[in-house]
Amino acid sequence: MMRCLAILTVRNEAAFLLEWLAHHRACGFTDFLVFSNDCQDGTDRMLDRLDEMGLVTHVRNDGPYDQGGIQFTAYKAADRMEIVQEADWLLTLDVDEFVNIHVGDQTLSALFAALPEATAITLTWRLFGCGGQASYRDEPVTQTFTKAAPAVMYWPWRAAMFKTLYRNDGTYRKLGVHRPRAPDPDRLPGARWFDGEGRALDDKFRTTRIFSTYGRPNYGLVQLNHYPLGAMESYVLKAARGRAVHSDHMLGVDYWVERNFTQEEDRSILGMAPAMTEELDRLRADPVLADLHAASVAWRRDRFETLMKQEPYRALFGRLLMTPPTRAVPLNEARFLVRYANLARQEGAEGSA
């Protein structure tokens, strides 16, 4: 059986973990390697239980961390692990990212059948906004947030970022956040990269690109549903946790505005809802997991109450209430911005020459 491994790093995400795992088991991932760090909500204990059940491999990533930070420390450790070396396909994900396949039965097998020549497939983000939901609810993320960015975006570039599902054939020797790293020069010419529309990609994608070409659709065969905000209450907790790469940097309204797109309804992932729910029911049937999930939900609510007594988080929540959904930048305005981005790149290249 082909082994497809998802690698995840988490902190204080137990309330969302079972849905994430159920969805990705349903769509065909066979193995899961999960690193946790500095958890107060029981995420680490939930992962211990899932490890005992043979459903994930859990590694505590409690430091010390190298210069790349928490996530890259985890990936460096993963590079040496047998579960990674034995996998046929690899994908690094976050707990707010859900693979959404649009062909066949919406599983990895159907995607691979649609792109039989691919050794790497770019899964472009589709950003799902808050939809005006202020309060956190203990309900599936994929069924709660259904309003997203337009299928064709012109700005910002991060709206077209991707994660890479790639064949573990030795072409790349290190995991990365958005793309595999450390290519083998001898194997690189044989790499065949395709995007979510099924288009063959040029050589830049083999080595450097981390976002798809915007201004065109990228989701025909597969997309990556990205729920970076959640409800406003959840975002306050996320802000307190800090950024994934630089955990000491508090998130603000800037991060929110660049991701709170709600122009289009996208319910395509709900085709996986029956299979996901079946998997989720199996997980919640375990009394230990059920208790840990309930405790994590209570922790989130208590944590929000604590944060709201502090001015920075109370002010942030107020700003979120006052901030309207983000307007997608039209083509003419995007061209204005891109012109200056290109000028800055050109001047930077000349300055370093």
Please explain how this structure is put together.
The chain is an alpha/beta fold and 353 residues long. It has one domain (4-352). 38% of the residues lie in helices and 16% in strands. It contains 13 helices and 13 strands. Strands 1, 2, 3, 4, 5, 6, 8, 11 and 12 form a nine-stranded mixed β-sheet that branches. A two-stranded antiparallel ribbon has the order 7-13. Strand 1, helix 1 (14-26) and strand 2 form a beta-alpha-beta unit. Helix 2 runs antiparallel to helix 11 (287-307), helix 8 crosses helix 11 and helix 8 crosses helix 12. The longest helix has 22 residues, at 331-352.
Task: Lay out the secondary structure.
Layout lengths: L3 E7 L3 H13 L4 E6 L6 H10 L4 E4 L9 H10 L2 H4 L3 E5 L3 E5 L6 H7 L5 E8 L13 H4 L2 E2 L13 E6 L4 E3 L6 E3 L9 E2 L9 H4 L14 E5 L5 H10 L11 H5 L6 E2 L7 H12 L2 H21 L3 H12 L8 H22 L1
Parallel strand pairs: 1-2, 1-4, 2-3, 6-11, 6-12
Antiparallel strand pairs: 4-8, 5-12, 6-8, 7-13, 9-10
Helix pairs in contact: 1-10, 2-11, 8-11, 8-12
Subcellular location: Membrane
Keywords: Membrane, Transferase, Transmembrane, Transmembrane helix
InterPro entries: Nucleotide-diphossugar_trans (IPR029044)
